[in-house]
Amino acid sequence: MTEPNEVTTPPLTGNATIDDALLGLADLTSAPLSDHHDRLAKAHEALHEALNPPEDQSEHPEPR
């Protein structure tokens, strides 16, 4: 078990966006509480975008 202020390195996923988002949370327990919301929101947004990319319009052309 890790200590409350110990920074752990998250596992690498191979996706740079996801890896960066998880790394941004690695030291969350030692960060000031006032920073938690912004850091969690930023990670959530990055993960959401990485896992739900916008559909490429060129692959699915609009019907005429």
| Number of E-type strands | 0
Give the mean pLDDT: 84
H/E order of the elements? HH
Number of helices: 2
Class computed from helices, strands and strand pairing:
mainly alpha
Distance between the termini: 59 Å
Q: Please estimate the helix content.
A: 40-55%
Biggest pleated sheet: none
Overall radius of gyration: 17 Å
Please state roughly what percent of the residues sit in beta strands, choosing from under 5%, 5-15%, 15-25%, 25-35%, 35-45% or over 45%.
under 5%
Overall morphology? flat
Low-confidence stretches: none
Question: In words, what does this structure look like?
Answer:
The structure is a single chain. The chain is built from two helices and no strands. The protein is mainly alpha-helical. The longest helix has 19 residues, at 33-51. Helix 1 (16-23) runs antiparallel to helix 2. It has a domain at 16-51. The chain has helices at 16-23, 33-51.
